[in-house]
Design brief:
42% of the residues lie in helices and 22% in strands. It is built from 18 helices and 19 strands. A 6-stranded antiparallel sheet has the order 6-7-8-11-15-12. It has a 6-stranded mixed sheet with strand order 13-14-16-17-18-19. This is Mediator of RNA polymerase II transcription subunit 1. Belongs to the Mediator complex subunit 1 family. Keywords: Activator, Nucleus, Transcription, Transcription regulation.
């Protein structure tokens, strides 16, 4: 029997031998690789070998060799397309990636990409140059598609592939081909009605592009093209329509309709399968070409069995990106259509948290959870630096915070429901734009001299307050902003009785509606306050003097009632003071000195400014 020491030596020697053998094998392998490198083929020969391997890929077992197939497709994308064979190879590769069939004509100058419900014709010349691209849906004649033509001419094969994917998704519907055809007819009918609604609005109002987006019954409609669905652009912020980096209005955007699909908030119009059955139109419902009012509102024919059919599907407005909605707005959309917006009970979150995450995603900071949870954001403006605390957990009613959820699509079943849905989307988008204007990835040190601090608190699902220190006094002032709709924001400034005037409510309202930005508005308020103080140095003194007078119930010397001041019908001398010092104009309350102070300061402001 071997001793443990000898056994250990034996195994140690065996391990050393294995390591030596592996090293020698690795050395031999490296020598072979070096030899291959030194005697490598030319690029033309390598390309030929790759093409030959790709031509044989049809016999490969797809299930067992998916990794190899992916590598071959990667090689295909890397090859330069400069001839007819390379172009047809690339088109066939794109078809396979989207699970579509493909075949070539006998002349090999036409490539057909096919499915059960549609096909795409790509016409080439002998040199591989593009001639035309046509799309044909089930039962229709092929129609030339300028967007697809441009993508292939520019060799934008990824964009061409996205269009094919969009066409595939369009027909991801329940049922057989006959049922899918009916659903496609319903979508076509809806598109015709929506297109007519936009044209009727523009003719009735003579609206330009931005006005059509913000006020149009269906926004700005971009027709379906290739795999891109009909798009309705329904909201843009003032920042969207200013040329980037110049601060000038983009007049091209104001006058023409060639705007990017991604600009602002937009929805795509589609049809999708549902578990419930809905009556959907399979023929246009708008009757006549004359609107019923000066806003371009059309008249619709009644829903009957001759123009509508029951289908296990529904129309949807699909958001171009996930958008936070308050719970009340989600319910309002469901009430408008009679269909729940969310199929399951949503997981509710503080609305401000959702707005912050959405804004950071647009800013390219979606991967920064610490920034999203801080609720404290900084903004650097010309001459000012701000810090905003978004207090989204502040209770708004019944001790609950403002709740919301992300919405990706909104179901409906009649074209007449679209204007009301777009108005709700616009309203929420305007609210989100104002709150989101505070969310920036800028960082400023807390001890920065002159840093101005603001707190934003929700009041309702359409209003909020912005609190900050008075620019002159050491008191707290507050601006309440009420988003009436996407086009109107009402603002009200609240301050202490003895605080100097900063600016008027009308001034704040005009600034907000022009910029839709809280930081820009706060900067304007402070600059206005500085201007007023420079022009009216005695304003604070006037306010302080009036406050003292009200406390002592003394009218100013020389006023008509100074010597003969009486009491009011309820024995209150303040009531008489209001009557004798200031003219009675139905806007003056006759019951409290606070109104007197407000009127005095306002009058002094109007006189001096």
């Amino acid at each position: 029997m071997k001793s443990p020491a000898r056994s250990l030596a034996f195994f140690s020697g065996e391990t050393t031998l294995n390591k030596s053998e592996k090293h020698s094998r690795m050395t031999a392998l490296l020598e072979r690789l070096h030899g291959k490198h030194n005697s490598s083929r030319s690029w033309q020969e390598t390309s030929k070998v790759v093409r030959q391997a790709m031509e044989k890929r049809g016999v490969i077992n797809t299930a067992g060799h998916q990794l190899l197939l992916n590598c071959l497709e990667t090689l295909q994308r890397a090859l330069k397309v400069s001839s007819l064979p390379s172009m047809t190879d690339r088109l066939e590769s794109i078809a396979r990636q989207n699970m579509l069939g493909s075949h070539l004509s006998p002349s090999r100058t036409e490539c057909y990409i096919t499915s059960d419900m549609f096909y795409v014709e790509v016409h080439l010349d002998k040199a591989g140059k593009l001639v035309d691209v046509k799309v044909a849906h089930h039962g229709e004649n092929p129609v030339s598609c300028p967007e697809l033509i441009q993508h292939l001419r520019d060799k934008h094969f990824d964009e061409f592939s996205k269009h094919l994917k969009g066409l595939v998704n369009l027909y991801k519907l329940p049922g057989d081909n006959k049922l899918k055809t009916k659903m496609y007819l319903a979508l076509q009918s809806l598109e015709l009605d929506l297109t007519k609604m936009m044209h009727m609005f523009r003719i009735a109002t003579n609206a330009n592009t931005v006005e059509t987006i913000l006020h149009g019954s269906v926004g700005l409609l971009t027709a379906r093209s290739g795999g891109h669905l009909v798009s309705l652009q329904c909201y843009v912020s003032p920042n969207d329509i200013f040329e980037e980096g110049t601060g000038d209005i983009d007049y091209y955007l104001l006058l023409y309709s060639a705007v990017p699909r991604t600009l602002g908030v937009s929805v795509s119009v589609t049809v999708e399968g549902t578990t419930s059955v809905y009556k959907l139109p399979i023929a246009p419902l708008i009757t006549g070409s004359h609107p019923v009012d000066n806003k371009g509102t059309p008249s619709f024919s009644s829903v009957t069995n001759s123009n509508c059919v029951d289908l296990p599907a529904c129309f949807f407005l699909k958001m171009n990106r996930l958008m936070p909605f308050s719970l009340s707005y989600i319910k309002k959309m469901g009430t408008t259509t009679g269909i729940p917006v969310l199929e399951t009970v949503p997981t509710l979150s503080p609305l401000y948290d959702l707005i912050i995450k959405s804004q950071l995603h647009e800013e390219g900071e979606a991967s920064s959870p610490a920034l999203a949870q801080s609720m404290r954001f900084y903004t650097s403006l010309p001459g000012q630096q701000h810090c905003y605390f978004l207090n989204g957990d502040a209770p708004v009613q019944d001790g609950r915070f403002l709740q919301g959820a992300y919405v990706s699509k909104i179901p409906f079943r009649h074209p007449a429901q679209v204007p009301a849905l777009l108005d709700i989307i616009r309203h929420q988008a305007a609210y989100n734009t104002l709150i989101g204007s505070c969310v920036k990835k800028t960082y400023i040190k807390e001890d920065t001299p002159g840093l101005l601090r603001f707190e934003v608190c929700p009041l309702t699902d359409s209003s909020f307050s912005v609190s900050f220190q008075h620019p002159v006094n050491e008191s707290l002032v507050c601006v309440v902003m009420e988003v009436i709709d996407s086009r109107q924001v009402a603002c009200k400034l609240y301050k202490g009785l003895s605080d100097a005037l900063i600016c008027t409510d009308d001034f704040i309202t005009k600034v907000v509606q022009r910029c839709m930005s809280i930081p820009v508005t706060m900067r304007a308020i402070r600059r206005k306050a500085e201007t007023i103080q420079a022009d009216t140095p005695a304003l604070s003194l006037i306010a302080e003097t009036v406050e003292i007078m009200v406390k002592k119930n003394l009218p100013p010397t020389g006023s008509p009632g100074y010597m003969g001041m009486g009491t009011g019908p309820d024995g209150n001398r303040s009531w008489a003071l209001c009557h004798t010092w200031l003219p009675v104009d139905g806007n003056i309350s006759q019951s409290c000195p606070a109104t007197l102070l407000k009127k005095c300061v306002s009058s002094a402001f109007e006189v001096l400014v």
